[in-house]
Amino acid sequence: MKFAVIAHRRSHLHSRVKSILAITSHQRFSFIIAAAVVLALAGCGGVSANSPSPTPSSTPPTATPTPVTTPTPAPSTVNVPTWHMNNARTGLNDQETLLTPANVSGGSFGKLFSYAVDGYVYAQPLYISNLNINGRTHNVVFVATEMATVYAFDADNFGDGSPLWKTSLLQNGESPQSGGNPKPFQGLTSTPVIDTSANTMYLVSSQKSTGAPFFRLHAIDITTGQERAGSPVVIHASVPGTNSESVNGVINLTVACLQRASLLLSQGTLFIGFSACPTGWLLSYDAASLSQIAVLNMSPNVDGFGEFGGAGGVWMGGGGPAADDAGNVYVSTGNGPYDAGPEWGDSILKLDSHLHIIDHFTPSDWAFLQCRDLDVSAGGVMLIPGESQLVAGGKAGKMYLINTANLGQLQPNDAGALQTLFFSPGSSTENCVDNHGTVVTGQAGTSSFYGTAAWFNGSLFVGNDPGPVKAFAYNSSHITAAGTTPQSISAFSYGTTPFVSANGTNNGIVWALDHGKPIQDPHSSTPASAVLRAYDATNISHLLYSSEQNAADTPGFGIKFTEPIVANGKVFIATAHDSLSTASPQGELDIYGLKN
Length: 596
Prior knowledge:
Elements: H1 25-41, E1 79-80, E2 92-93, H2 101-104, E3 109-117, E4 126-133, E5 136-144, E6 149-154, E7 165-168, E8 175-176, E9 193-195, E10 200-208, E11 214-221, E12 233-234, E13 238-240, E14 250-252, E15 264-266, E16 269-274, E17 281-286, E18 292-297, E19 322-323, E20 329-332, E21 348-351, E22 357-361, H3 366-371, E23 381-383, E24 389-393, E25 398-403, E26 419-422, E27 428-433, E28 439-444, E29 454-456, E30 459-463, E31 469-474, E32 479-481, E33 499-503, E34 506-514, E35 531-536, E36 539-546, E37 565-567, E38 570-576, E39 587-594
Parallel strand pairs: 2-33
Antiparallel strand pairs: 1-4, 3-39, 4-5, 5-6, 6-7, 8-10, 9-10, 10-11, 11-12, 13-14, 15-16, 16-17, 17-18, 19-20, 20-21, 21-22, 23-24, 24-25, 25-26, 27-28, 29-30, 30-31, 31-32, 33-34, 34-35, 35-36, 37-38, 38-39
């Protein structure tokens, strides 16, 4: 598989926005940091799809100088405890009673405030309603940074910008692992997961002291930020194998890998995926004891080849393994050799908690995908609600609709899939010469899939890269293009994964984060601000809101593969405050909602 977060090779130009605020963004950011330090020392409106709007800013964005005060929502049971809302990875919060297409487009919706954090945030924020911290009840949003720091913030009230609690997962003498991609650190890269029944968050950190870097698995109390009993544990994994990593017939997991895939907690078992190294890994742990259950290496006997040299990495475009109600787990793998086991490159796997492979689907042109660096794991897996089907896609631009009761294995012309389709027109049949000098043939589309689909009312919403979010209608085991797409989104979205908010089957809004020229863009050292957009889910071409329309709504710089979440009338996005050229660059959490 290719290295997990190597960006695809496209970029676009954003023009500069002149600030209309009274003080500079650096001054505003410094004020927030200074206030937090002093307290610590003391002990402590609407727009149409065709309307002109300001272009994304390349100046450092930050918190609004005067945070907007809004009423705390009524007590709620809404939680976003895992990546893309739930274990099916549908990206749908259907209990959103405050935000509607009418008020989001009515001119009163916008950026409320931003919280400052100590590093970049590649992980999706998580959200818990009505959590008691220090004797008071809060709606809480959690942020994990690449400095191996976890923050708990009040989701509704900015106050002085201080967190409810803040915890470093580093021990004495340690620092976060230095990063190549992500840069400059990769202390906490994946999205954690919260067990709401135990008020426990699980995270994987990467750190170093005097020796080589290593991984740790943590279980922390979300009311205090403190480690639970028995936490943390150092992650070790090894399997028998004969590939070039093998030493005396054994392959070991090392921090040459990146723990990019979001964590999954299913029926008491944690699942952790690794990529960006010679072979991909999937580990399972008992959540109660943090003891390791099983280890699966995706290519123990055969080396990968090509530009990145990986074999079967599990990164899923920053998404995570999915799980059904029976506890079956589904992952996609990246470039690598395939032989129906033990080599599992460019496949979709169905597994149990002991990582036994129950079933699999492998595209018939997997050898071409491997040769062309078009890994299936560039996209995530989404289980269609109420159906025994999943949808997935990868860098070749092809979507696969698969029966979870029979994934279909490897068959000519992908006959094992219920349906395959390219989500952009213009696919072509191409050739590639592999590492053995063999010409392999396959199909590639004009755009790629670097994300996971979202679901609402029988429709799939898919981020096209390059290009806009598209709507697809699902009906009787068949997917068709819905015929309309957003017209206002950058040509290069860097892995857009949409999120949908709705009140039951009504008031559906599709939220999309356009990463623009993100941090660590391979073609530009000057990032541009991300853009948050909202579309009417019943007519995806109808743009309800864009953060471009008002300079005060500008979020931080884009970070690849990140997505928004929505809960209790607020939208949360993780961005970068500083560019890579800044020493110890910092991040921010931008919060949007109704201003009156």
